Amino acid sequence: AAYPEEQPLRGEIEAEARDNVVRLMPHPSMVLWNGNNENLWGFRDWDWEPGLAGDSWGEGYYLGLLPRLVAELDPTRHYAAGSPWSGSWDHHPNDPDHGTYHSWEVWNRQDYAEYRANVPRFVAEFGWQAPPAMATLRRALPGEALAPDSPGMLHHQKAEDGNGKLNRGVARHFTLPEGDFDRWHYLTQVVQARAVAAGIEHWRSHWPTCAGTVVWQLNDCWPV
């Protein structure tokens, strides 16, 4: 989303950022402060510029205000302007050869074998959806005749064309079952496991060019 940089919002954002840096900086797992998720990429690729018509949209927060606050309040930790981000506008924000990279062409449009087509410097987001464990489904949707397109399943399917992506992912490697929910559920989880493994194994094999991967997201909630 785009955020105006004028007052009074600017003052509120600075106050909130100060509070949260102080609140979270003692956490032992805090490694890096990140200015935003996909906003720099969105500005470049998602047709924001015409609609903004020159209005401020947050760049001053990510490249000015927030790094200044982190340097003041928590100078022992690094700050990144965003994720993905290539370090400057000299490169595309989601350039695999610079900085952090989000890999979503796979899952959205391509087979998981395509993870092997590139070696980003750091994969800050990638993943592949599947339904939760059957025990979770039974507990969350008691009494429902489960099917990929049953009301409860569709209510909790938050991905755009999510079931279509699941079905295409299965069909590339297995015969897509018709009318057999248990087998469909099993195969979607098999494909998810193979997809995540394919990405991690490929990128790990290219250390130190690729210095890490982050699965989005291991702590997902279901039902939501």
From TrEMBL:
GO MF annotation terms: beta-mannosidase activity
Keywords carried by this UniProt record: Glycosidase, Hydrolase
Matching SUPFAM superfamilies: (Trans)glycosidases
Signal peptide coordinates: none
GO biological process, one term: glycoprotein catabolic process
Protein name, as recorded: Glycoside hydrolase family 2 protein
